[in-house]
Amino acid sequence: MKAVFKRTDGLLNVPMHYCPGCTHGILHRLIAEAMCELDILHRTIGVSSVGCTYNNYEYFACDMVQAAHGRAPAVATGVKRVHPSKSVFTYQGDGDLAAIGTAEIIHAAARGEKISVFFANNAIYGMTSGQMAPTTLIGQVTATSPFGRDPDTQGHPINVSEMIATLPGAVYVERVSLHDYRHIVQAQKAIRKAFQVQEAGLGFSLVEVLSTCPTNWGMDPKSSMDWVAEAMIRQYPLGLFRDPKLEERK
Amino acid sequence: MPRIEFNQDLCKGCGLCLSACPQRLIQLRKNRLNDKGFHPAYVEQADRCAGCGVCATICPDLVIKVWR
Ligand SMILES: Cc1ncc(C[n+]2csc(CCOP(=O)(O)OP(=O)(O)O)c2C)c(N)n1
Ligand code: SF4
Ligand SMILES: [Mg+2]
Questions:
Q1: Which of A49, A146, A174, B34 sits a CA distance of 20 to 30 A from A193?
Q2: What is the pLDDT of residues A172-217, one digit of tens each?
């Protein structure tokens, strides 16, 4: 009998502080497992951002740096350019990446920085108690859109993956989801691939991960997973937006 | 025979594993609170567990270990 599932060495042996059923924990595990499988844990530097995951430098077993709100891609750029032999990733929420950090993510992708961005899109500002994000769905009720997001006054959701995929520097862009077993397995492959693309020196990679925030969505964890499947995927279709293999064939 | 183990002190009782288990073997221990104050998950009929690991894959808190 062998262990088919045990705690990954990519995470330190401490409990995580996330709310019950929050998918941030799943994404942490997938990133940690990818670093171990590719045997790059000892030479990976992660960049934490601002949001509920601001202190995930307490959880990942690799080296970590903490960036100011939205600036993780700029910090990661510096780290990677100084340490080109390291693998460098950012872990960013949608408030961090798609609001205050819009400039940094676009220009890091445009420059083709050889970093991997893991983008947890839960359509809300989780940490600050549930304000509307640029990624909030039309009609979604949040603390600052109490009657549901109205595009006339509050604008439209931003599809980050599609937008980043228009930039030639972004060589691998995929949107995945964590709402059930099958999709978690697919997300795991995408995260591994992002690191591989970086290791091969191909360019900028971004994996957008549809995530939940049961606490601020006001739903139980299972209903939150169902809401990702039913509502979020309609606005944010899953799939591959830039694939290095496809680029070669062009 | 497959074996499954829950680190009940890490569990936040979110219940995601309950609906993920294809055999619906997992329950929350309603008569017990862990150190965090949650009702932890456990497997009632462990001998029926196939060791598929679906519960461990969806668990956000790395509570579950599976051997097969
Ligand atoms: C410069 C600055 N502006 C605003 C804030 C407040 N703030 C903290 S987290 C956050 C949004 C986080 O949302 P997101 O990135 O989606 O992360 P989540 O918590 O949802 O995972 C904001 C606006 C801050 N910490 N620093
Ligand atoms: S507030 Fe939301 S995003 Fe933050 S830990 Fe809780 S459930 Fe997760
Ligand atoms: Mg968010």
A1: A49
A2: 999 999 999 999 999 999 999 999 999 999 999 999 999 999 999 9
Q: Which ligand is nearest to the CA of A218?
A: 2
Taking residues A79-86, what's their average pLDDT? Answer: 98
- Give me the residues paired with residue A93 across strands: A120
Predicted pLDDT at A188: 98
CB contact under 8 A, A221 and B16: yes
* Ligand 1: centre distance to CA A126 (Å): 8
pLDDT band at B40 (very low <50, low <70, confident <90, very high): very high
Residues of B within 8 A of A9 (CB-CB) are none
DSSP labels, B26-64: EEE-TT---TTS---EEES-GGG-----HHHHH-TT--E
A3 strand-pairing partners: B67
For chain B, list the domains and their CATH numbers.
3-67 (3.30.70.20)
Nearest-by-CA chain A residue for B39: A20
ipTM for this prediction: 0.97
Distance A212 CA to ligand 2 centre (A): 8
CB A221 within 8 A of CB A212: yes
DSSP, collapsed to helix, strand or coil, labels residue A149 as coil
Q: How far is A247 from chain B (nearest CA, A)?
A: 33
Task: Tell the residue number behind the tokens 């567990």, with chain if given.
Answer: B49
Domains and CATH numbers, chain A: 24-249 (3.40.50.970)
